[in-house]
Write a structure and sequence with these properties.
Helix content is 37%, strand content 15%. By secondary structure, the protein is α/β, with parallel strands linked by helices. It folds into two domains: 128 residues, Aspartate Aminotransferase, domain 1 (Alpha-Beta Complex), CATH 3.90.1150; 198 residues, Type I PLP-dependent aspartate aminotransferase-like (Major domain) (Aspartate Aminotransferase, domain 2, 3-Layer(aba) Sandwich). The protein has a seven-stranded mixed β-sheet, sandwiched between helices. Strand 5, helix 8 and strand 6 form a beta-alpha-beta unit. The longest helix has 26 residues. The radius of gyration is 21 Å and the shape is globular. The chain starts with a helix and ends with a helix. The relative contact order is 0.16. Belongs to the class-II pyridoxal-phosphate-dependent aminotransferase family. Histidinol-phosphate aminotransferase subfamily. Its cofactor is pyridoxal 5'-phosphate. It is an enzyme of class 2 (transferase). Pathway: Amino-acid biosynthesis; L-histidine biosynthesis; L-histidine from 5-phospho-alpha-D-ribose 1-diphosphate: step 7/9.
Length: 350
C-alpha cells in the first residue's frame, strides 16, 4: 500500500484552499491577500518559553471581550478564524450524516473544512444583489447543522442586510447554528451583529486580528458565542492553541493605545479605498462594486488579460470566481496610486 493509499479518500481527492501564499507571485506590490500595509512594532518577553501557554489566556480573552463589547465567557481564541470554522464543524456535525450550508460567492474555507471532515455542504448562491436568498435557504435546511454567512462578504465586499440575518436566525431557531463571519467587520463596526447574541443562543460570530489590526502573521482569531457553545468548543480545541508570544502581541494590539492606532489606520485604509474606487470608477468599461472592508471587487472587460499583465509586472492582485472580476486589497497610498496608474495605462492601450 502506498503512502497516498494510506491517506483518507477524502483527503486524497481534496483540492486545497488556494491561499495567496500558495499561489505565489513575484513583485513589489502585494494587494492579493487583504493584508494591512502597516507593519507595527511590538515588544516580546522571551523568558518563560519553557512553559506551556494557557489554553485560553485570561488577559487575551478579557482584552478581546472588552474590545468586542461582550462577556469574557462568550469569547474563544484560536489560531485564526480558520480554526474557529474547523472547530465549529467538528463539534456540531456528524460525519457522513449532517450538512453545512453556505452561500457563494464567499470564503472558500467553509466548504473545504466541511469536506475534510466528511460533512456534506449544501450550496445556496447569494442573490444577484449578493444578499441571502432566504426562501432558497429555507427549502434546504433539512439535516443542516450550520449555516455560514460572511459580512462584509469576501470577495464581494458588501454587507448582508441586517433584517435578513435576523430572518435567518429566526428560521434556524432550534435547528441549526448560524455563523456570521465578521473577519472584516472592524472596517464597519457599527454593522456588527454581536448585539444579537443576547437574543439568539444559536448565533456564532467569527473575528480575527489579521485584517484591521495588521496581524495576519500572528494567526490570532476569535469565536464569539453564548457560553454553552463556547464550552462545547473548549472540549475539542487543542491543549495549547495560543503561543505565549501571540498572547503578548495580541494584548498589546488590544490595549487602549493599540486600539487607537488601529482606528487611525482603518481610517487611512478607508480613505485609500475611496481613492481607488473613485479612480477606477472613472475608467471606461470598469465597474467598481461598493466595498465595506479593506478590498474592492472590480469588473473589467477582460479581467484575465489584465490580471496576467499586472502579475507579470509585479503587481499581485487576486483572481475572483466571479466572471471578469479582480479583487484588489487596499494598500498604502503609494501602492494604490501605482496600481491605479498601471491599470489606467493598460486600459488606454486597448
Amino acid at each position: 500500500m502506498t503512502i497516498a493509499q494510506l491517506a483518507r479518500k477524502t483527503v486524497r481527492e481534496l483540492t486545497p484552499y488556494q491561499s495567496a501564499r500558495r499561489l505565489g507571485g513575484k513583485g513589489d506590490i502585494w494587494l492579493n491577500a487583504n493584508e494591512s500595509p502597516f507593519a507595527n512594532e511590538y515588544s516580546i518577553n522571551l523568558a518563560g518559553l519553557n512553559r506551556y501557554s494557557e489554553c485560553q489566556p485570561p488577559e487575551l480573552i478579557n482584552a478581546y471581550a472588552d474590545y468586542a463589547g461582550v462577556e469574557p465567557h462568550q469569547v474563544l481564541t484560536s489560531r485564526g478564524a480558520d480554526e474557529g470554522i474547523e472547530l465549529i464543524i467538528k463539534a456540531f456535525c456528524e460525519p457522513n450524516c449532517d450538512s453545512i450550508l453556505y452561500c457563494p460567492p464567499t470564503y472558500g474555507m467553509y466548504a473545504i473544512s466541511a469536506e475534510i471532515n466528511d460533512i456534506n455542504a449544501k450550496v445556496v448562491p447569494l442573490t444577484p444583489e449578493w444578499q441571502l436568498d432566504l426562501n432558497a435557504i429555507a427549502e434546504q435546511l433539512d439535516n443542516v447543522k450550520i449555516v455560514f454567512a460572511c459580512s462584509p462578504n469576501n470577495p464581494t465586499g458588501n454587507l448582508l442586510v441586517r433584517k435578513d440575518i435576523i430572518a435567518l436566525l429566526e428560521m434556524t431557531t432550534d435547528r441549526a447554528l448560524v455563523v456570521i463571519d465578521e473577519a472584516y467587520i472592524d472596517f464597519s463596526l457599527q454593522d456588527s451583529v454581536k448585539d444579537l447574541l443576547a437574543t439568539y443562543p444559536h448565533l456564532v460570530i467569527l473575528r480575527t486580528l489579521s485584517k484591521a489590526f495588521a496581524l495576519a502573521g500572528l494567526r490570532c482569531g476569535f469565536t464569539l458565542a453564548n457560553k454553552e457553545i463556547i464550552e462545547i468548543l473548549l472540549k475539542i480545541i487543542a491543549p495549547y492553541p495560543v503561543p505565549v508570544p501571540v498572547t503578548e502581541i495580541a494584548v498589546q494590539a488590544l490595549s487602549p493605545a493599540g486600539r487607537a492606532r488601529t482606528k487611525f489606520q482603518v481610517l487611512d485604509l478607508c480613505a485609500n479605498r475611496a481613492y481607488l474606487q473613485a479612480g477606477l470608477g472613472m475608467l471606461a468599461g470598469v465597474t467598481v462594486f461598493d466595498g465595506y472592508a479593506n478590498y474592492l471587487l472590480v469588473k473589467f472587460t477582460d479581467a484575465d488579460k489584465l490580471f496576467n499583465t499586472l502579475w507579470d509586472n509585479g503587481i499581485i492582485l487576486r483572481r475572483s470566481p466571479i466572471e471578469n472580476c479582480i479583487r484588489i486589497s487596499v494598500g498604502n497610498r503609494d501602492e494604490c496610486e501605482k496600481t491605479l496608474a498601471f491599470i489606467r495605462g493598460q486600459l488606454q492601450q486597448q
